[in-house]
Amino acid sequence: MSAPAGFDAAQAAGLVRTLTAGLREELIAFRRDLHAHPEIARAEVRTTQKLLERLRAAGLDPRPLEGTGLVCDIGPDGPAGRLGLRADLDALPVQDRCGCPWESTVPGVAHACGHDVHTTAVLGAGLVLAALDADGLLPNGVRLIFQPAEEVMPGGAHDVLAQGVLDGLDRAVALHCEPKLDVGQVGTRIGPITSASDAISVTVSSGGGHTSRPHLTGDVVYALGQVITQVPGVLGRRLDPRSGVNLTWGSVHAGNVHNAIPASGTVTGTLRCLDVRAWEKAGQVLNDAVEQVVAPYEVDVTLHHTRGVPPVDNDELVNAELEAAARAVLGPQGVVLTEQSLGGEDFAWYLTKLPGAMARLGTATPGERRYDLHQGDLVVDERAIGVGVRLLATLALSAERPAEPVDGTPLPDDETAV
User: Fold this and answer.
1) Domains in the chain, please, with CATH?
2) Which of these, 67, 154, 47, lies nearest to 111 by C-alpha position?
3) Residues of 4-13 as b/e, b for ≥16 C-beta within 10 angstroms?
4) Range of weakest confidence among 221-235, 291-305, 404-418
5) φ/ψ (deg, to 5) at 351
6) CB 172 within 8 A of CB 145
7) What is the pLDDT of residues 90-146, one digit of tens each?
8) Which residues pair with 73 in a beta bridge?
9) What pairing do the DSSP bridges indicate for beta strands 313-314 and 246-254?
């Protein structure tokens, strides 16, 4: 049977709606199971196995990746290539404090960034598309990508690219939970939607000594203090302030007694840039600044700069496709213009190889508390799972490829139905 010509976004949304409703309870249970059994980066063994089992039960042929993660093709190979739907599997090393019956059973590990929602939404979209494909209704092939290790540097996107997972794709999309948006809203943006993010570690060392004789040794603690306070300012003066360069320290360790100058100390943090050109220059500026700041104190310094991710740069036309699908699913006011975030996302590496876009999936219950990502008390409105499934499946089913980009529009006061 040849592939159908495809549907406009409204027709696609209608086909998807009933199938998604039939999966609602199963998908919520699947997400809660993932939440209760989180796994950190490159250890997502159970999560990978649960996905393999469910996709095989649907008659699909998922392929495990080396280590953890998997990919699964659905539908025909179209002339334009497949659409990639990407989810990330890993949890964070933070204590779960959500207070839900499905709270994490793993001490110190929690899905505090919503990856359990991302994974379940892509799984659900895959199940919907598999059912439609069985009826000969899927016009173009889709590849589900369940990626490990998004939360670490270097991230799992590098593993995916190295294994050729993007081969045969013409574009890729991803969703990311956004607890600042109500459920039923999707945030989009043309161009950069996240920032570049690197890990920084500065170690200062000398011979150590007594605090009564700081002139006889390099004062490691004092030198570290200069790095902490001065280096961010140097970056702000040497790089274009419009690039949003931000160096923020997250930890500092030096010594353990009050009257001894330690032999070494380390400060770690993140360097973030909104502009990829500034990101490319920031490494040399940072290196020069650190060396110059500590030079008067007769200490040795070692800088470890781990290049993390560039900004996620949304393609205009793929972003317009996402918006068209979101409006078909959620109504004309379902899409809002979102801000560029200083957060990093390794989906950015996919978009250095092919066009694509990431959208923000609203997870807040209207009128209730707004949570924050990477916090152990994160609670999401689980209706967001169905929204994500319907959005991704409608996008994949629709043959509507907008010729002109249309950025998000502000949402009025009335709420969008979910």
Assistant:
1) 9-192+311-397 (3.40.630.10), 196-309 (3.30.70.360)
2) 47
3) bebbebebbb
4) 404-418
5) -80, 0
6) yes
7) 999 999 999 999 999 999 999 999 999 999 999 999 999 999 999 999 988 999 999
8) 143
9) unpaired
More confident residue, 80 or 102: 102
CB 276, CB 196: distance < 8 Å: yes
CA distances from residue 153 to 80, 90, 305, 323 in whole angstroms, order as listed: 33, 13, 11, 31
pTM: 0.90
Separation between Cα atoms, residue 281 and residue 235, nearest integer Å: 10
User: CA–CA separation, 398 vs 266, rounded Å?
Assistant: 53
Token couple for 139: 């016009």
For residue 126 the two structure tokens come to: 């895959």
Task: Assess contact for 316 and 405: CB atoms under 8 A.
Answer: yes
Which token pair is 226? 């200069």
The angle formed by the CA atoms of residues 202, 208 and 211, to the nearest 5 degrees, is 110
Neighbours of 77 (CB within 10 A): 12
Secondary structure of the chain in HEC code, one letter for each residue: CCCCCCECHHHHHHHHHHHHHHHHHHHHHHHHHHHHCCCCCCCCHHHHHHHHHHHHHCCCCCEECCCCCEEEEECCCCCCCEEEEEEECCCECCCCCCCCCCCCCCCCCECCCCHHHHHHHHHHHHHHHHHHHHCCCCCCCEEEEEECCCCCCCCHHHHHHHCCCCCCEEEEEEEEEEEEEECCCEEECCEECCCEEEEEEEEEECCCEECCCHHHCCCHHHHHHHHHHHHHHHHHHHCCHHHCCEEEEEEEEECCCCCEECCEEEEEEEEEECCHHHHHHHHHHHHHHHHHHHHHHCCEEEEEEEEEECCCEECHHHHHHHHHHHHHHHCCCCEEECCCCCCCCHHHHHHHCCCEEEEEEEEECCCCCCCCCCCCCCCCCCHHHHHHHHHHHHHHHECCCCCCCCCCCCCCCCCCCC
At 258-312, the pLDDT tens digits run 999 999 999 999 999 999 999 999 999 999 999 999 999 999 999 999 999 999 9
Using CA atoms, how far residue 70 sits from 43, 53, 88, 165, 416, in Å, is 13, 12, 10, 9, 34
Q: What token pair was written down for 32?
A: 């809660």
133: left (phi over 0), alpha (psi -120 to 50) or beta: alpha
Quick check: 394 and 12 in contact, CB under 8 A? Answer: yes
How far is the C-alpha of 101 from the C-alpha of 315, rounded, in Å? Answer: 40
Q: Residue 359: what residue type?
A: A
